[in-house]
Design a protein that fits this description.
Strand order of the largest sheet: 3-7-2-8-9
Structural class: alpha/beta
Largest sheet: 5 strands, parallel
Helix content: 40-55%
Order of helices and strands: EEHEHHEEEHHEHEHHEH
CATH topology: Rossmann fold
Distance between the termini: 35 Å
CATH architecture: 3-Layer(aba) Sandwich
CATH class: Alpha Beta
Number of strands: 9
Number of domains: 1
Shape: globular
Length: 244
């Protein structure tokens, strides 16, 4: 359903100090759980003055909605129907991410452990995935200059992006980062379910562990956060220079 209208965006103004790039530029970043996609892409988008799209948040919001509506996640058709009517609104300002479903602000609610453990059931649903991909493409087209991150952005959602990067890290680094992100509230087994086991399930729907042709690999295992951000920014600036 290309151009599906069940999802919308609200774009707050980009901070005035951010440099403005007026050409169309899509930066597509894929990677496994705990690789740092969200934080790295938000920081890069802020510096570049670009919009930011967290496609994973869309799948999480859809999962939250299904659970709220008491939809059986094993019922593929019911999940697809719920996603089709999902009243989702997601911001594209990297400095102010707000996600609402109807009148409910779910920005924090979609990050809880239960959603992390259930989201694969929605993400691997072909019909639900097609609906969300159509919405993601519509947002990317509307924004023009955007950093979009997820698991199939470089290969399915925006394979024609000017910058395509697979952001990865070792399993040890990803588990450590996700544990720090959760404030040490998860035990080792819970972390493995949220990071490694989820990757195994989601890889049935998209390949985000091996870079496709034309996709650059950025391994952040031994890099600091700022070094990773700077590396991504340099790739974007190089692409911008090549087009000027």
């Amino acid at each position: 359903m290309e151009g599906s209208s069940f999802v919308s965006t609200h774009t707050d103004e980009v901070p005035p100090e951010a440099p403005q790039y007026t050409g169309r530029m899509v930066v597509a970043v894929d990677g496994p759980s705990g690789s740092g996609k969200s934080s790295v892409c938000r920081a890069a988008a802020t510096t570049l003055g670009a919009a930011y799209l967290d496609t994973g948040a869309m799948y999480r919001a859809a999962t939250w909605y299904c659970l709220e509506q008491e939809v059986d996640l094993d019922d593929h058709k019911a999940v697809a129907v719920a996603v089709e009517e999902l009243p989702l609104n997601i911001s594209t300002n990297p400095d102010h991410q707000v996600i609402t479903v109807g009148e409910s602000d779910v920005t924090a609610a979609i990050r809880v452990a239960l959603i992390s453990e259930k989201v694969s059931q929605v993400a691997t649903n072909p019909e639900a995935r097609a609906l969300l991909i159509a919405a993601q493409r519509a947002i990317i087209d509307r924004e023009g200059f955007i950093v979009a991150e997820g698991r199939d952005i470089t290969t399915v959602v925006a394979p024609d992006a000017q910058v395509r990067v697979l952001l990865t890290a070792s399993a040890e680094a990803r588990l450590r980062r996700r544990g720090a992100q959760l404030g040490g509230t998860q035990d080792d087994e819970a972390l493995r379910r949220q990071v490694l086991d989820r990757d195994t399930k989601d890889s049935a729907a998209s390949n985000f562990t091996v870079a496709a042709d034309g996709v650059a690999v950025l391994d952040s295992s031994e890099l600091s956060f700022q070094q990773t951000v700077d590396s991504l920014i340099s790739r974007v600036q190089l692409a911008q220079g090549a087009r000027s």
